[in-house]
Amino acid sequence: MADEHHEETFEAVGAGAAQFYPMQCSALRKNGFVLIKNNPCKIVEMSTSKTGKHGHAKVHLVGIDIFTGKKYEDICPSTHSMNVPNISRKEYQVLGVESDGYLSLLDTESFDSRDDLKISEDGAYSVDSVQAMLDTCENDGSTCIATVLNAMGREEAKEFKTVAAK
Q1: According to CATH, where is 2.30.30.30 located in the chain?
Q2: Looking at residues 92-103, what average pLDDT do you find?
Q3: Is the predicted pLDDT of residue 11 greater than 90, yes or no?
Q4: Which of 43, 59, 100, 161 is most buried, by CB atoms within 10 Å?
Q5: 16-48 as b/e, with b when 16 or more CB fall inside 10 Å?
Q6: pLDDT digits (tens, 9 = 90+) for 47-85
């Protein structure tokens, strides 16, 4: 029997390929991020109970989902690990907005444009409010900027602002 060698091939992945990483519960901090029930949340409240009869102090976490604004709670022994989402934040220049909510965005670093991102339906901005902001920018020569959050395979334009012309 011939010696067969099976070589495994793997798809190339970038350094930011992991959607989350583990962190000891006691190392988490208020205003940091954590996954609660698989939702990327910003920690808004955190309290630690005293060591109980089973030897573990418990950490009570309250977090707000960064995409939906929904409140989540969890309790974890302080010595255990919880997952922390990798969150990226990128700013794009807003070139336009379609009536169906899709944005036309320009990456000001690479000058690539994209039209695949929609205004969040449960967010603070509507098609009309973004269009009004764009009209104002056009009239006074300023620029409309969208802040896009990316976490757990989900991407959303969360904030819009105007930047005065230089």
Answers
A1: 20-85
A2: 92
A3: no
A4: 59
A5: eeebbeebebeebeeeebbbbeebbbebeebee
A6: 998 886 777 789 999 999 998 899 999 999 988 999 999
141 φ, ψ (degrees, to nearest 5): 80, 10
Contacts (Cβ under 8 Å, ≥6 apart) of 48: 26, 57, 58, 59, 60, 78
Structure tokens at 131: 């269009």
CATH 2.40.50.140 domain locations along the chain: 88-163
Question: Distance between the two ends of the chain, CA-based, in angstroms?
Answer: 75
Q: pLDDT tens-digit profile of 129-161?
A: 999 999 999 999 999 999 999 999 999 998 899
Residue type for 158, please? K
Task: Tell me yes or no: is domain 20-85 CATH 3.90.550.10.
Answer: no
**pLDDT tens per residue across span 14-25:** 454 689 999 999
Query: CA–CA distance from 149 to each of 1, 68, 135 (Å)?
Result: 55, 12, 24
CATH of domain 88-163: 2.40.50.140
